[in-house]
Amino acid sequence: MKQQLNIVVNGESHELFIEPKTLLVQVIREHLGLKGTHQACDSSSCAACTVVIEGKAVKSCSILALQVNGKEVLTVEGLAQATKLHPIQQAFIDNWAFQCGFCTSGQIMATKALLDENLEPTREQIQEQLDGHICRCTGYNMIIEAVQDASKRLKVLKNLELQRDAAMKLPGKAAAQSQKWAQTAKSGKGA
Amino acid sequence: MKAITTDFEYLPATTVEEALELLSQHKDDEYRIIAGGQSLNTAMKHRLIAPEYIIDIKGISDLDYITFDPKEGLQIGACATHRSLEKSPIVREKYPVLCEMEENVASVETRNWGTVVGDLCNADPAVDPAPPLIALDAKMTIVSKDEERTVDAEDFATDFFDTTVQPGEMATKISIPVLPPNTGVFFTKYSQMQGDYALASASVLITLDNKKEICTNARIGLGGVGTTPLRAKLAEAVLIGKKITDEVLAEAAKVASEESSPVSGIEASAEYKKELAGTLVKRVGKIALERAQKA
Predict the structure, then answer these.
(1) So what's the ipTM on this one?
(2) B52 and which of B30, B124, B219, B266 could share a cystine (Cβ 3.0–4.6 Å)?
(3) Considering only residues 197 to 256 of chain B, which have any Cβ-Cβ distance to chain A shorter than 8 Å?
(4) Angle A167-A169-A175 (CA atoms, 0-180°, nearest 5)?
């Protein structure tokens, strides 16, 4: 018998009726058509299916969709803004952190959860976070470098935002400057 | 195994009373309780189990706690995740062995969602938290509609993937007593890949007398070397009342190895695991002793 699932995925609310046996990854891929979340090992061993549930990285192949009823889920599709990639995605590209790319969405979502919690992780903390992610192409160094690069980019953006917010409170010339900063922060060229 | 093929009804509970009511309405062989559900979902995908009802207790916010009291010790609720135990500052301060154990449980994603009590209820003989909980003299609280009872950590699992939890009952918390002075505890596991289930694991607790010479209490928990996690009581007896030297530790390790009764698997033979259990007790015991001397 189908049961009701209310779920917010990438900021959009969905009301679905699903078989209770449906896994979260199936709802994301098949019901919502978001194919960026990948299924590989299906035994909780590879982390390709990682999504972010309320700030925490979780493997979507190992939990029932109904277990996240009423919760917010972020998938890799929720990162880019229109045609502009998220700084983490851009850092993965610029650091050659993938070849075939199959595991990449999982790696990126785990990175997102890590950097949201800790903007300046140590190399050890990055290794710990990505420990469960299996990549058979790149070797892992470039992935770690990509996360370090993403951390720097996000820090620059955060500083720009802070400066902008401070400048907003100033009159005249400073306010004009703040507009400029806002533009820079938006385009992400600060990195 | 991309999907679960058998149907079931999903029943979420938000209070303990509600969960117990749901349990009382169904027969034991029909339902399974989940908190994180990651082990059960995987078992269902592999067609190993097909319950008719799944009772989800993750929504019981009253069971999501980790508290410490200087008299009562540590209490871990049934909905506390592996990750919250690993990252708890008070646990890091008072029972660092539990944080060290958690750091090698599966991966961050699995620890974020999975619960410690749920892991114990899944009752894999190699479950990581069991040996340190046995060494720490932990108790499990089990409740039903009519009563509440506690069992020692070493008696919680009764067989491969089976526990003492009866129809209509659920495990609600782990209680760990305050450690006496001059006590050291350590745990390690040996597995093929980081985060895998252990081929064998061992945890040793050693308490020394006031002069820090004689061992007044010792507790040894073993994982992966039997049908359940084990307490190596005979090996403990070798240590208690003695000044612990390398020879005494080696003797205890030999006895612990004999007490273990592992099963052969694709990764290692029973003989290998038996040998491994002894080696781990020797190594872990040495670190537990150093910690007790520094405590």
Answers:
(1) 0.94
(2) B30
(3) none
(4) 50
